Amino acid sequence: MDYTDIVKKSIAYIQCQYSEPITVSDIASHVYLSSSHLSTVFRTLTNYTIKDYILRYRLYQTALELKGTNKRIVEITYENGFCSQQAFTKSFSQFFGISPAKFRQLNPNIKPFPQNLENLLLERGISMELTKVFEKVHFVKKDSFLVIGIETDINYHSSEGTHSISDLYKQWGNENLIEKIPNQVHDQLCYGMTHSETENDTAKYIVAVEVSTLENIPTGLVGRHFDAAEYAVFDCTLEDETSGKFFQYFFKTFLKENNLSLPDAVITKNGNTYSRYPLFEVYDKHFKNKTDPIQIYAPIIRR
User: Fold this and answer.
1) Does position 118 have pLDDT exceeding 60, yes or no?
2) Does 3.40.50.720 match the CATH number of domain 3-122?
3) Domain 138-302, CATH homologous superfamily name and number
4) What pLDDT, on a 0 to 100 scale, did the predictor assign at position 37?
5) What is the pLDDT of residue 41?
6) Which distant-in-sequence residues (6+ apart) come within 8 Å of 222 by Cβ?
């Protein structure tokens, strides 16, 4: 399903019908989606609810008419889809900061609306593929658990950065470590886990498997215990994650829009916010490249 095309068709419908009392249901029927599905897609891609977008477009059209015509304000009100002059004046004044009459008198410059959809998507920082990822999020409460694996230190702002993570995966594969770890809980599910963030933008990354006990840890490997937590779980690909767009949207938008926050959060010296609980990818035994499916477990708490 091409969500960009759906949003473009929705916007075109709004621009044709804005002077009428259109509803979300009207637009959803036009693009053959449910109202709830369209609402989610539209907001995700444009950063506007459909109702807000309709209002913004109506206000822009009224501003153009106030600048370019001698029509009475009451005419402009009803010709642009407002149900009363009082409702129009209130919305207009809140948005532009002055009344319609004062606006006409001052004749200020106004920015075009809508903006180019591609620019909106770029500013929004999320692709069509990621739209589907965030739509299908589910939440799980995971009990405390144990893992055994190999670990490295990472620093988000050093010259080395996170380069050591790729070396960790090479070692994991070359030495076939998954076959050497006893007491595994799942059938060859590999975890890639970031944990123990500090105020200095450092953390640890472990490639590991979940186990039932930390007894008999093989030489050269480490064991870790993680407390129970609730996680938002996303089905995506490693390509989605490593693009940077996934976490940009997760931290800047998803948490806020879903009234969530990070448990045991730490704010670093560089202004980043992380959770000391593990954030991790889950790979199954069939994983081969960046386009194969993985799961991302992100720790959350509900506000």
Assistant:
1) no
2) no
3) Regulatory factor, effector binding domain (3.20.80.10)
4) 83
5) 81
6) 148, 149, 150, 151, 206
